[in-house]
Amino acid sequence: MAPCFPLGSCDSSHAGGAAEDGEHRAMPRKPKTEKQPAEPKPPRPPLRERNQLNELTGDRWMWFTKSLVTTVYPMEFGHRLRKAHGANKPPRLMQEQIEFFTKGGGLVLDPFAGVGGTLIGASIAEPPRRAIGIEINQAWADIYQQVCEQEELEPQEMLVGDCLAIMPTLEAESLDFIATDPPYNIHVDKTMCDGKYGWANRESDYNMRSEEERDFANLETYADYLDAMERTFVECARLLKPGAYMTVILRNAYQEGRYFLTNALVAARAEAAGLVLKGEKIWYQAGTPLRPYGYPYGFVPNIVHQFILIFQKPRKRK
Fold first, then answer.
1. Could you tell me the residue range of the domain that residue 170 belongs to?
2. pLDDT greater at residue 34 or residue 233
């Protein structure tokens, strides 16, 4: 049995640190130091100021990123003149792209400008953007000028000639955005059931090519067309600022009994030129007429949708 000690007779080793007179010693306390107030953090700028790409609100940004787009645009901005070009693009469609991928005053290029849908889109953007168009067919460039006069729009710069000859003369890394609608493929004379239904249910003969040998639609083979597109993309990559975007509107092709995934083939050529595919949007223009392709012998698709391919020039590494 352990020995029993009278109360108060324990030394400090048995009394948990008690003093010799039986009282506990107080533990020394650290002197209080006044907390210095933290430096206030600078206020974060408003979200729009932090937006490095465009001037859109969050809801408009989110809506644009939908991968499927159906549009019903009014016939405006000189549509009666512009419809002479069977593949003219609605200026409102181009405006939406320009407003997403640029800020006010940005510089936009369309190397296949046609009757100027992209240039008009830049003019009506809020706020307006600057634009340069390149068009090989003088007739289409003339229509653009007529539309500007009719609609009282300040004409953007329209250069007439071969884009592969003109683009090398432009300043490197000077563009904020490229938006274009190139020829979808080479021209094939035998279409529309060999002409039997040539004007059935349509407003245009869809022959947008010029007499120029350098017109991509006049190239000999589909492989030649893809090679020409890649050379164009090399110039696009040179002209875009680092981090800037390019959109290309395309439709897949059906030729000589075979369906071509033009969107995939062209995207591969753009990536070979140094651009990065960031996504695609499927665009359906409501009211696109159907045509009696293949009737009554076999299946030929009515291709009523188009692709808007989105590419970006990589940013420079710091």
1. 51-312
2. 233
Q: Considering the domain boundaries, does residue 105 fall inside one?
A: yes
For residue 266, being part of any structural domain is answered with yes
- 152 falls within a domain: yes
Percentage of the chain beyond pLDDT 90 is 68
**Beta bridge mates, 134:** 159
pLDDT digit string (tens) for 186-206?
A: 755 554 444 444 434 334 444
Q: Domain holding 215: CATH number? A: 3.40.50.150
List, as one string, the DSSP characters of the chain.
-PPP--TT---TTTTTSB-TTSPBPPPPPPPP-PPPPPPPPPPPPPHHHH-SS----HHHHHHHT-SEEEE---S-SSHHHHTTSTTPPPHHHHHHHHHHH--TT-EEEETT-TTTHHHHHHHHSSS--EEEEEES-HHHHHHHHHHHHHHTPPP-EEEES-HHHHGGGSPTT-EEEEEE----S---SS-TGGGTTTTTT-S-------S-TTSGGG-SSHHHHHHHHHHHHHHHHHHEEEEEEEEEEE--EEETTEEE-HHHHHHHHHHHTT-EEEEEEEEEETTPPP--TTTTTS------EEEEEEEEPPPPP-
Locate 310 and state its tokens: 């989105």
Please check whether residue 10 lies inside any domain of the structure: no
